[in-house]
Amino acid sequence: MQDEYELVEGCRRQDRIVQRQLYERFAGKLFAVCKRYIRDPDEAEDVLQDAFVKIFRHIDSFRFECPLEAWLKRVVINTALKHIRKQKPWEQTSDIQDLAPVLPQADESLPSLNYQYLLRLIQELPPGCRTVFNLYAIEGYNHVEIADLLDIAEGTSKSQYARARSLLLQKLKADERIVTSNPPRTTTN
Predict the structure, then answer these.
(1) C-alpha–C-alpha distance, residues 165 and 6, integer Å
(2) What is the mean pLDDT of residues 24-39?
(3) N or C: which end of the chain has fewer CB within 10 A?
(4) Helix, strand, coil fractions of the chain, as percent rounded to 5
(5) Whole-Å CA distances, 28 to 32, 43, 97, 107, 129
(6) Contact 99, 120 (CB under 8 A)
């Protein structure tokens, strides 16, 4: 396995074999990032391909100031956000003040659950909620940064996050396994 320097330098030379190696090494992880933002797998794959085109086109801008994977992930997230911005999924949303009666209390938190289960629940969120939830809760952006990234108002970011939390909690409460803290019973015949 080549180290990062060799991969980057090979890609800078536009060596197709090295580009393939970079793709094969990181595509799985980066596709998982795409799927956090883009629900449809085919659409997520398109976003990933667009991101790799940008990666290969702009590899000269990588300066080894961070791990290569972090830089690649940033390109993928920005590509996914650009794709989402075109769709403007948050234009039909309420302001945070309108959501106040349905927001979860601050002491309510998501139980410790299986990562794949939570990922599936997050993917079921409406696109605007899913995007803001991922950026805030998973990537660690604040609402001012999210507003800037998505070209939306800070209040829109906050309301989308609040709505995402509320929807996730509703889904979790609706799941009998979560409410009763017991796994579903199976019967044997």
Answers:
(1) 43
(2) 94
(3) C
(4) 70, 0, 30
(5) 6, 15, 40, 36, 24
(6) no
